[in-house]
């Protein structure tokens, strides 16, 4: 029967997202609405401040992508002021960036997304001996694959369930027929969920070494806030760097022997999800991981570009500084632009709230009017998907052998062709394959750092333009990165040594964007269309596709209600 399903809030994400899905008579989604339901106004807070401080404010947009806003911010200010950072600073930033990416992807897979595919309650029916045999087959190099170990995990789990306090496993559609894993695979996944949870806090010690803390490590305009003296006692020395190397080795072990085997094992039970959830078919990357300075885009390990209509034979160029390329539209957003304009490049961007939605509590949004706190970013007027799938496709389409190798190996193991990438499962797999590349690049960056230090260069910052007296009266700049969820850009306009305007366009804003003036859907909305929903009261299918993007609405709207009021009407788990 035709009906409208509301999921609000979508959980196991960061921030506040509401999704409305319209079902047709055959219970397929024929249209969808993605709405960011909170507002903060960070871009407004930045106006009038010292541009050297902007990173510290921006970084606190989010506790999930804990460093990327600082990175984009210092790059924007450096671009504006004409600062080139020393080689060590580029490398240390790359190390901090990759550390965050790998941690975030592992957390997403095990802790935010796996429970869409893994039925925790079914794990109670597993035979621990059979689970150990399965685990030995799936990941032969992982040490915990014993009967006794799985018996213990099952015991802990049944105590949770018996007490009625599922804690972190509360609230999901347990027992839903869409869960396809046998009990043993479910138990294995639950055990690895707990192991990954313990490990993820270790990796980010790399941030505490180079940036003093995590989350939100320290950054610096002109370089990094890490003094290095290999044989000293009062700076980062060889003992600390050796610890970094150990943490990277552990990360390689986790990604190769736990994450990737689990990902492929789970994926093999859900082949139908390689045909669902593809969506826009347009992909965009700004690129990152400079090997020869931020200006040498051709040498980035994450390539820049746009792919249109799934056409992998052509990668189009992207220029974040070109007002004709990147614009944010507001025809379906709760904002106002001066002069009634509908689209602005971020250098001229304006953040002025204009709520015109229904008075809460309300039943449904009207997609023909404004319906989100997210703007609608567009590339040359087109909606784009950003993120791990976009990056893997960009590497593949750019002819990069390293990308082709991991993609081809995974497709071979799952016995599917490249078209399977354009799907919900393709998006989820891309995140794992990207982690496989990223974790080895992390070790490469570490080796580059050591080589550079041993070559006698220990400079980590260039402070010649630190003093505002050296700045031009007015300048503009942009900074970018490939955040875990995709292309992230910051644009700054500096005037009289202060921030005159600051605009942030975030990956989840691209992906979760509302419709634009031409009625084009954002990536979430487009990906939901065509999805069959077996039970409208328990729409696990909606969660699978939305979670495959790894939403972060805290980033996306960089904003929340002045009274923290909830705009919630219907609660679906
Ligand atoms: Ni808050 Fe973020 C990432 C940024 S949003 S998580 O990754 O930038 O998409
Ligand atoms: Mg913004």
Helix-and-strand structural type: alpha+beta
Helix content: 25-40%
Uncertain residue segments: 559-573
- Spatial strand order of the main sheet: 1-2-3
Principal-axes shape call: globular
Walkthrough of the structure:
This protein is of the alpha+beta class and 573 residues long. The protein has a domain at 84-277: Cytochrome-c3 Hydrogenase, chain B (Orthogonal Bundle), CATH 1.10.645. The protein is built from 16 helices and 11 strands. The strands form 4 sheets. It has a 3-stranded antiparallel β-sheet with strand order 1-2-3. A 3-stranded antiparallel β-sheet has the order 7-6-8, with no helix packed on it. A 3-stranded antiparallel β-sheet has the order 9-10-11. A hairpin with a 5-residue loop joins strand 2 (17-23) and strand 3. Helix 10 crosses helix 11, helix 11 (401-414) packs antiparallel against helix 12 and helix 12 runs parallel beside helix 15 (540-548). The longest helix has 31 residues, at 424-454. The two termini are 21 Å apart. 52% of the residues are buried.
Explain briefly what this protein structure is.
This protein has 573 residues and is an alpha+beta fold. The protein is built from 16 helices and 11 strands. Bound molecules: NI-FE active center (NFE) and magnesium ion (MG).
Secondary structure elements and pairings:
Elements: E1 3-7, E2 17-23, E3 29-36, H1 42-46, H2 54-58, H3 68-81, H4 87-113, H5 128-138, H6 147-162, H7 183-203, H8 205-211, H9 238-267, E4 283-285, E5 305-307, E6 326-329, E7 343-344, E8 376-379, H10 388-397, H11 401-414, H12 424-454, E9 474-483, E10 486-495, E11 498-505, H13 507-511, H14 523-528, H15 540-548, H16 553-557
Antiparallel strand pairs: 1-2, 2-3, 4-5, 6-7, 6-8, 9-10, 10-11
The chain binds NI-FE active center and magnesium ion.
């Amino acid at each position: 029967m035709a009906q409208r399903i509301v999921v609000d809030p979508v959980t196991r994400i960061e921030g506040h997202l509401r999704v409305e899905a319209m079902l047709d008579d055959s219970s397929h989604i024929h249209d969808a609405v993605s709405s960011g339901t909170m507002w903060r106004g960070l871009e407004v807070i930045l106006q009038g401040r010292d541009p050297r401080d902007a990173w510290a404010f921006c970084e606190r947009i989010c506790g999930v992508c804990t460093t990327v806003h600082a990175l984009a911010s210092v790059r924007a200010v450096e671009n504006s002021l004409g600062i080139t950072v020393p080689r060590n600073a580029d490398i240390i930033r790359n190390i901090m960036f990759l550390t965050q990416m790998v941690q975030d992807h592992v957390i997403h897979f095990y802790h935010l997304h796996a429970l869409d595919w893994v039925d925790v309650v079914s794990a109670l029916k597993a035979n621990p001996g059979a689970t150990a045999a399965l685990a030995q087959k799936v990941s032969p190099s992982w040490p915990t694959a014993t009967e006794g170990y799985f018996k213990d995990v099952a015991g802990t789990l049944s105590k949770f369930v018996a007490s009625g306090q599922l804690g972190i496993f509360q609230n999901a559609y347990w027992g839903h027929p869409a869960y396809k894993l046998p009990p043993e695979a479910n138990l294995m996944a639950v055990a690895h969920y707990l192991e990954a949870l313990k490990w993820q806090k270790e990796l980010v010690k790399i941030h505490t070494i180079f940036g003093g803390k995590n989350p939100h490590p320290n950054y610096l305009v002109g370089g990094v806030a890490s003094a290095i003296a290999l044989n000293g006692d009062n700076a980062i020395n060889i003992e600390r760097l050796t610890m970094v190397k150990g943490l990277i080795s552990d990360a390689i072990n986790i990604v190769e022997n736990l994450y990737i085997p689990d990902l492929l094992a789970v994926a093999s039970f859900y082949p139908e999800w390689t045909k669902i959830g593809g969506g826009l078919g347009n992909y965009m990357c700004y690129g990152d991981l400079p090997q020869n300075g931020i200006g040498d885009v051709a040498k980035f390990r994450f390539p820049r570009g746009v792919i249109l209509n799934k056409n992998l034979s052509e990668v189009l160029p992207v220029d974040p500084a070109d007002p004709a390329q990147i614009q944010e539209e507001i025809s379906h957003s709760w904002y106002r632009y001066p002069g009634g304009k509908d689209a602005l490049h971020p250098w001229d961007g304006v953040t002025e709230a204009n709520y015109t939605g229904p008075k809460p509590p309300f039943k449904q949004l009207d997609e023909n009017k404004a319906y989100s706190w997210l703007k609608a970013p567009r590339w040359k007027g087109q909606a784009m998907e950003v993120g791990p799938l976009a990056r893997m496709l960009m590497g593949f389409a750019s002819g990069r052998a390293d990308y082709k190798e991991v993609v081809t190996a995974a497709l071979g193991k799952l016995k599917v062709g490249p078209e399977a990438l354009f799907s919900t499962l393709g998006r989820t797999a891309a995140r794992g394959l990207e982690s496989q590349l990223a974790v080895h690049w992390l070790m490469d960056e570490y080796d580059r750092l050591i080589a550079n230090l041993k070559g006698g260069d220990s400079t980590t910052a260039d402070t010649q333009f630190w003093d505002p007296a050296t700045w031009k009266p007015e300048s503009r700049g942009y900074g970018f990165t490939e955040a875990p969820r995709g292309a992230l850009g910051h644009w700054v306009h500096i005037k009289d040594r202060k921030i005159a305007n600051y605009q942030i366009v975030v990956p989840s804003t691209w992906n979760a964007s509302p419709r634009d003036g031409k009625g084009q859907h954002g990536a979430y909305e487009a990906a939901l269309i065509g999805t069959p929903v077996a039970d409208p009261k328990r729409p696990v299918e909606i969660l699978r596709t939305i979670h495959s993007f790894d939403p972060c609405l805290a980033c996306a709207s960089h904003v929340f209600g002045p009274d923290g009021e909830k705009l919630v009407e219907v609660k679906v788990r």
